[in-house]
Amino acid sequence: MEIYVFIDLDDTIFQTERKCYGATPIHDAAYGRDGNALSFMTEKQRTLFSLLGQNAHLIPTTARSYDAFRRVVLSFDGIAILDFGGVIINENGEIDKNWDSNIRVQVDAAREQLGQIHATIIETAEQNNLHIRSRIISDFDMDLYVVTKLIDVEGDDLRRLYDITAQKFTNDNFHVHFNDNNFAVFPKCLNKRHAVQYIIDNIRRESDNEILTIGMGDSETDIDFMAVCDYCLTPRSSQVTRLLMEARNVQR
Q: Measured between alpha carbons, how far is 60 from 114 in angstroms, rounded to an integer?
């Protein structure tokens, strides 16, 4: 039986050095545009990645753009889900044209409103003296989503920004994601779940054998795509784990 693991990257299989919590040794996992290492794997993460890679097809399922994904040093089979599901790269390393033709129309329709959201974030930060950096992530000539981070990883400016603006941005057309130093707003047509289901359906059409699927992620936004899979896997310190524990405590 063929095994396919749909694996989120940042804060799932690697993270910034700060989030390694003193683990040694750590190993380079992804680089910045300047060539310096920005993300790292602990020994446990590297062991898990190796174990999965020896027994399954690994399909990255990430918010990273194509440029940011190419700076990841880990080896994958070829297929990749990028930009919260806005882009799918096929086994030949090319953009999946069928997926692109569907998504591009929907993303283009949200372009103007996405620009307004970005402008509101910048204006709100200036009015409240919040030290953040915000930009629209574009890929393959598409404006896809807005991502906002702290300039300095210390402090609660990003949380304050989220508290002020999240309700304004959450509607029928857009989804808001907040986790640690990551505040993202993206159109609901971008959905890792839809992209994962699309790939699973393609694999099943092309294979005569049953397949086993595993979804691996850390954030609330990963839950939907993980639920499409036969099994779910999440780090102990993840947002997903915290949500599960909070739900358990409420039920008790």
A: 25
CA atoms of 158 and 185, how far apart (whole Å): 13
Place of tokens 């003296």: 129
Hey, what amino acid is at 34? D
Q: Domain spans of the chain?
A: 2-95+191-251, 99-187
Q: Which fold has domain 2-95+191-251?
A: Rossmann fold (3.40.50)
pTM for this one? 0.93
Q: At a CB cut-off of 8 Å and minimum separation 6, what does 28 contact?
A: 37, 39, 40, 41, 73
Contact status, residue 2 vs residue 207, Cβ threshold 8 Å: yes
Question: Which residues neighbour 109 within 8 Å (Cβ) at sequence distance 6 or greater?
Answer: none
Instruction: Tell which wins on pLDDT, 142 or 247.
Output: 142
Residue with tokens 């784990």: 241
Q: Alpha-carbon torsion 190, 140, 102, 91, what sign? A: negative
Q: Determine the pLDDT at residue 247.
A: 86
Nearest to 151 by CA among 167, 165, 135: 135
Q: Which of 116, 118, 79 is nearest to 199 (CA)?
A: 79
